[in-house]
Write a structure and sequence with these properties.
about 400 residues, alpha/beta, Aspartate Aminotransferase, domain 1, Aspartate Aminotransferase, domain 2, 2 domains, 7-stranded mixed sheet, about 15% strand, globular, binds pyridoxal-5'-phosphate
C-alpha cells in the first residue's frame, strides 16, 4: 500500500471527525432486546430494527442452536454448487406462503437481493424507474444495470407519471420503491404506484425491508397496510430486521422471475449460501408470525402510544404509523449532542444529520419494538422531555 493512499485515508477520517459526521460504534455487552448492556449499564434500546423483539426470542435462538447441530455451521459454497440444504428450500417456501407468491430466492442480505435484481431482468432497451430517496442498495443495484434510468423526485406522482410516459419508448419497464422510507418512517404511496404501473404497463417491485413483520394487521407489510395486498408482483426484503434480526434477504414473486434470478443473479451465484443457523432462526420467525400476529399488534400499540406521548409533550415528530419515529431538532450538532445526553439518561437513540437527511432537518430517529413495555416508553418520553428542555427544543 502506498503512503499516499494511507495519508489520503487519514485526512478523510480527520475531515469526518471535524465535520462531526464520523460514525461511532458503541460496543454492546450482550444481546439486543428492550434493553442492551453498554459500559456496564442497562440502556433502553430505542434505535434498533428489532421491531418484533425476535432478535433474542427464546424460540428463535433455540431454532438457531438446533440448526447448528442438525445442519452444521455452513456449506462452504454457493447455492448452485453444493450450498443448498432442505432448510433453505423450507425457508423459501415459508416466505412464499407468507407473501402468497409463487417462489422466493434467498440472499445473504437484502443489500445483495437488491444489487442482484435489476441486471438479470433488464437490458439496454428497457427502462428502470426509481425514487430519488430509495435505499443505497437499490441505488447500487440500479448502477449495475444497463437499462435506461428514470430517477424521480421523492414520491412526486406527477414526475413519476411523466417518466412512465417517456419510458413507453422502451421495450419493458420496471419500477422499484422502498415500501417504507426508513429515515422518515414514511410509507410509500403504493395504491397510486400500483395504479400508475398498471396504466403504463410497468412491473412494480417493492423493497419492504422496514415493513415485513411490521406493517399491516398480520405483518404482511406495506401492501397490506395500504390495501393493495396481491397487487404488487415482486418484493425484496430483509431477514435482518423484524424477521430474526440476524442477516439474510430475499426476492419473492412469480416463478419465472425467481428461476431466472437463480440462473443469473450475480450476488446469489457467486456468494455463499445463508448459514443454516441464520436460515433456521428466520424460518422460526416466519412460523411464529404465521401462527400468531400478536407481536405485530403489540408493536402497533407501542408505536401509537409513543407517537401520542411525544406529540403531547410538544416534540416535532414526522406523522405516521410506522415504528420509526423521527424527532426533528433541526441542527446536526444539536441532534448528536441530544443523542449523547439521552444516552447518559439511559436511552439509546441515534442522531442523524446532513448529508444523511436534508440540511436543517437533523433528527433523533426513535425505533419502537414490540418488546418495549408501556413503562419503558413513558420513561423514554420523560428522558426526551428533560433533554428537550435542556437543549431548548421544548419550551
Ligand atoms: C430499504 C432497505 N433495503 C435494504 C436494506 C439492506 O438490508 P440488509 O441489512 O439485509 O442488507 C435496508 C437496511 O437498512 C433497507 O432499509
Amino acid at each position: 500500500m502506498t503512503t499516499s493512499l494511507i495519508d489520503y485515508c487519514r485526512s478523510e477520517v480527520e475531515a469526518l471527525h471535524a465535520s462531526r459526521t464520523f460514525k461511532l460504534e458503541r460496543v454492546l455487552e450482550g444481546p439486543t432486546g428492550a434493553r442492551v448492556r453498554v459500559d456496564g449499564r442497562d440502556i433502553l434500546m430505542l434505535t434498533s430494527n428489532n421491531y418484533l423483539g425476535f432478535a433474542n426470542h427464546p424460540r428463535v435462538v433455540a431454532a438457531a442452536k438446533k440448526a447448528l447441530d442438525r445442519w452444521g455451521n455452513g456449506l462452504g459454497s454457493v447455492r448452485f454448487i453444493c450450498g443448498t440444504q432442505e432448510l433453505h428450500k423450507e425457508l423459501e417456501a415459508a416466505i412464499s406462503k407468507f407473501f402468497e407468491t409463487e417462489d422466493t430466492i434467498l440472499y445473504m442480505s437484502c443489500w445483495n437481493a437488491n444489487e442482484g435484481l435489476f441486471q438479470p431482468l433488464l437490458q439496454e432497451e428497457d427502462a428502470l424507474l426509481t425514487d430519488g430517496l430509495n435505499h443505497a442498495s437499490i441505488i447500487d443495484g440500479v448502477r449495475l444495470c444497463k437499462a435506461k434510468r428514470f430517477i424521480t423526485p421523492h414520491n412526486d406522482l406527477a414526475a413519476i407519471e411523466k417518466a412512465l410516459k417517456e419510458a413507453q419508448a422502451c421495450r419493458r419497464r420496471l419500477m422499484i420503491s422502498d415500501g417504507v422510507f426508513s429515515m422518515e418512517g414514511e410509507v410509500a404511496p403504493l395504491p397510486e404506484l400500483v395504479d400508475l404501473c398498471a396504466r403504463h404497463d410497468t412491473t412494480l417491485v417493492v423493497d419492504d425491508s422496514h415493513a415485513t413483520g411490521v406493517l399491516g394487521a398480520t405483518g404482511r407489510g406495506s401492501a397490506e397496510e395500504t390495501g393493495v395486498w396481491g397487487k404488487i408482483p415482486i418484493f425484496t426484503s430483509t431477514l435482518g430486521k423484524a424477521m430474526g434480526s440476524a442477516a439474510g434477504g430475499f426476492t419473492t414473486g412469480p416463478k419465472p422471475v425467481i428461476d431466472l434470478l437463480r440462473q443469473r443473479s450475480r450476488t446469489s451465484l457467486f456468494s455463499n449460501a445463508l448459514p443454516p443457523a441464520v436460515a433456521a432462526s428466520s424460518l422460526e420467525a416466519f412460523r411464529m408470525l404465521l401462527e400468531d400476529p400478536a407481536p405485530v399488534q403489540k408493536l402497533r400499540h407501542n408505536t401509537l402510544l409513543f407517537r401520542r406521548l411525544m406529540t403531547e409533550a410538544g416534540f416535532n415528530i414526522l406523522p405516521g404509523v410506522h415504528p420509526v419515529v423521527p424527532v426533528i431538532v433541526g441542527d446536526t450538532a444539536k441532534a448528536l449532542a441530544m443523542s449523547a445526553a439521552l444516552f447518559e439518561k439511559g436511552v439509546y437513540v441515534s442522531g442523524f444529520g446532513f448529508p444523511v437527511v436534508p440540511q436543517g432537518h437533523a433528527r433523533l430517529r426513535c425505533q419502537i419494538s414490540a418488546v418495549h413495555s408501556d413503562e419503558d416508553l413513558h420513561g423514554a418520553v420523560d428522558a426526551f422531555i428533560a433533554v428537550g428542555k435542556e437543549f431548548e427544543v421544548l419550551g
